[in-house]
Design goal:
By secondary structure, the chain is of the alpha/beta class. Strands 6-7-8-3-9-10 form a six-stranded mixed beta sheet, with helices on both faces. A hairpin with a 2-residue loop joins strand 1 and strand 2. The radius of gyration is 18 Å and the shape is globular. The N terminus is likely disordered.
Length: 264
């Protein structure tokens, strides 16, 4: 059963208090590649309405963790629970249908399609079985959903622009729009500000803050200024294990984190 997020757009604590079941939970989640433990018995909980960052040095296991959550990789041990339902090992399309969407570190759009067409394909993926002849209103409905997603990321004015003609920052935000068009409960953002100018980074951080009023967001991000200014809590991975968790203030003052990450 789908558990709706709180409609209260107040503090993160008030949003998190709307439901006692974590939107996402992992139990002893492990991934091995031969003799290498990319993830080792990760116990993780994400509260509904939270913005959580996953940080850590290169090779810490951040991408592996994201890939397990979104069905790109199958865990070799442990469980993943979404709204209390086990999703461990499900394929990406099944996980998407359950309400988890993601963007990728490398821009993943259709460059020769318009921005609207890119988002419309994602919106259409939420319709299991329909055709435009039998359901004449379906196409208009999908267009409305696609336009709403574009509007939420500030790209409605470029709906008929080829995606290849957008700036790098606009293309990254289009990816977020594509994810939003699938109507997720949990949005996983992989390096959303990678390669952006300072101005684009600020705009994207503000975009994430704005859309977080209606979503739970999990973000992998190297820009510590973005992480510290945007997130409610931070999880630090190191060699495939959780090194520390806490508020931005707690993480900045954690001696283990300072030693292995923030000062490297």
């Amino acid at each position: 059963m789908r558990v709706e997020p709180s409609i209260d757009a107040g503090s993160p604590a008030s949003r998190r208090g709307a439901a006692s079941v974590p939107v996402l939970k992992t139990e002893l989640l492990s991934v091995r590649f031969g003799g290498l433990a990319a993830l080792s018995e990760i116990n993780f909980e994400l509260a509904r309405g939270e913005i959580r960052a996953i940080i850590g040095p290169n090779g810490a296991g951040k991408s592996t963790f994201f890939n397990c959550l979104t069905g790109v990789l199958r865990p070799t041990g442990g469980r993943i629970l979404f709204n209390g339902e086990e999703i461990s090992g499900l394929p990406s399309n099944a996980i998407s249908q359950k309400g988890i969407a993601r963007s990728y570190q490398i821009t993943n759009i259709l460059p020769n399609a318009t921005t609207l067409e890119n988002v419309r394909i994602a919106a259409q993926s939420r319709r299991h079985a329909w055709n435009m002849i039998a359901h004449h209103g379906a196409f208009a409905d999908i267009n409305r959903k696609a336009e709403a997603a574009l509007d939420s990321v500030g790209l409605l004015g470029k709906a008929y622009e080829l995606a290849s003609n957008l700036s790098h920052g606009e293309q990254r935000n289009l990816e977020i729009g594509i994810a939003l068009a699938t109507e997720p409960q949990l949005l996983c953002l992989d390096e959303p500000t990678a390669g952006m100018s300072s101005a684009e980074t600020s705009e994207t951080a503000e975009l994430i803050r704005r859309i977080a009023k209606d979503l739970t967001i999990l973000i992998v991000e190297h820009d510590m200024e973005v992480v510290m200014g945007l997130c409610d809590r931070i999880t630090v991975l190191h060699y495939g294990k959780i090194l520390a968790e806490g508020t931005p203030e707690e993480i900045q003052e954690n001696p283990k984190v300072l030693e292995v990450y923030l000062k490297t």
